[in-house]
Amino acid sequence: MKMHIHKFAFESHKIIDSLTDAEKSDFFDKTEQLSFKKGKLLFYEGGIPSGVFLLKRGKTKIFKTGIDGKDQIFYIYSEGDLMGYHALLCQEPYEDSCETLEPCEFLFIGKQAFTELLQTIPHLKDTLIQNMSHEFGVMVNIIAVLAQKPVRERLALFLLILQAKYTKQTLEDARITLPREDLANIIGTARENLGRLLKEFREDGLVFIDKKAILIRDASRLQHLADANYAYR
Amino acid sequence: MKMHIHKFAFESHKIIDSLTDAEKSDFFDKTEQLSFKKGKLLFYEGGIPSGVFLLKRGKTKIFKTGIDGKDQIFYIYSEGDLMGYHALLCQEPYEDSCETLEPCEFLFIGKQAFTELLQTIPHLKDTLIQNMSHEFGVMVNIIAVLAQKPVRERLALFLLILQAKYTKQTLEDARITLPREDLANIIGTARENLGRLLKEFREDGLVFIDKKAILIRDASRLQHLADANYAYR
DNA sequence: CGAATAATTGATCTTAGTCAACTGCTGTGG
DNA sequence: CCACAGCAGTTGACTAAGATCAATTATTCG
User: Which of the 8 DSSP states describes residue B49?
Assistant: First the structure.
């Protein structure tokens, strides 16, 4: 089972990209610009959606919290992504929470305005459909990886996925700067375990580590590790 | 974290239910009736979608196979469900496979016909959007459960979910008749482990077991187990 | 009926989770 | 600017959940 990182990428930026200039200006007329500090909640599990969020700068995580306090992170959103539309579109409470990982700037579009846009821009629905059907495949892959691959392989894979996300914007800086706890909650393991594996990866020359930051050193060997099925060591 | 089984249910039957009688007849005019024996593939990972499937009778599983041969099952479809539309709608190869668990009857709607219906029945898109945004929440919950809950709790939860599915059609028979291997691949564990836990559940009076068939005996205690977070035993 | 398949059971081993102690970094106020 | 509090990360020892292996017993189906 070859792991292609693009099969783990949402494409919600396409929802906005698909608009013409006129439609975009129509869209942006209805938005409200907001800035949040690091560690602030955009929405939370159980809450009632009041609109959607277009991330202009920064990164956020969507996650679910267990009673024992351990989060499971499903996705890291970055610049250009549209967030929080699922619960709004099916008119149900949020199943997940969204929190800023860095200082963020984003546009908020109220429920009413978003619903209107869906009516006035017919092809927006098509893009939404295309986007969500793609996301289904991504979720399927995430489930398969979390349920079937051992932690070492998951770490290799998610490092590659995250690197792509962190590289996208600032080419000179492909370092992954997530706190260890968040990274652990993405790959679904304990902090301590993650630390041990990172150390091992560093000793094996797979990554550079500088304080919090992780930089991939040998992507092809990581890729190979991510593809491995009980053939390692 | 209270586990509500309806938060683990797709609602793809609504896609067809939302049609008026006239629209339905338009829809059914474009379908082809098919019967498959048990264990036959409707579509498979990597394949190119050529249409969608409406399940009239029987049950199917969607799953992904790892190199080591161990499957991860994401969902069991039953009567009324529309299957295989995600890959078609995003114009990508299937990320998952679909196989009959019993003899099945279903209607096949070709890609061309389905696309036409999407144009001629405008509100069909709305239902699709509503449905897929709902499914996103379901997938989020599945990920959280598989990643965070121990096998015993997962088994309790999935038994309740499956019972609801098996009860829906034939009220007199709420028995879950999946092969052990499939059940193991749903809750994400090994056959042997599943067997031991089922034995334990039977001895504790939670379920009746007759050959392959599992019948829930004490749903409220199972529910309690599913909700537990390391408070069991 | 008997071969093939599925389920059960027991024993052992491994991964990864937990607990606990320690180190080091960061930022704030004196 | 330094000290210290608080938090993030590291390390090691221990434990337990669950996987794997191997052998046996039921069940199903041709």
Answer: P
Using CA atoms, how far apart are residues A20 and B158, in angstroms rounded to an integer? 46
Q: How far is CA B145 from CA A75, A108, A203, B8, B213, in A?
A: 16, 31, 34, 10, 24
pLDDT at residue A168 is higher than 70: no
Task: Convert the pLDDT of each residue in B201-217 to its tens digit.
Answer: 999 999 999 888 999 99
Closest CA to B159 of B224, B80, B90: B224
Sign of the CA dihedral running A195, A199, A204, A205: positive
Please tell me which of the candidates B70, B134, B136 has its beta carbon nearest to residue A148.
B70
pLDDT in tens, A43-97: 999 999 999 999 999 999 999 998 677 899 999 999 999 999 999 999 999 999 9
pTM: 0.94
Q: Which residues does nucleic strand D approach, with CB less than 7 A?
A: A 179-181, 191-192, 195-196, 198-199, 209, 212, 230; B 68, 70, 150-152, 188-190, 192-193, 211-212
Identify residue B55 by its one-letter amino acid code: L
For an interface test with A, the pick among B62, B67, B124 (most A C-beta atoms closer than 10 Å) comes out as: B67
Q: Are A227 and A174 in contact (CB under 8 A)?
A: no
Distance between CA A3 and CA A228 in Å, rounded? 10
By Cβ distance, the residue of B92, B134, B229 closest to A90 is: B134
| Nearest-CA residue relative to C1' of C8 | B195
Q: Tell me: the pLDDT tens digits for B43-82?
A: 999 999 999 999 999 999 999 998 677 899 999 999 999 9
Crossing angle of the two packed helices B111-120 and B122-148, in degrees rounded to 10: 120
DSSP state of B91: T
Does B233 contact chain A (CB < 8 Å)?
Answer: no
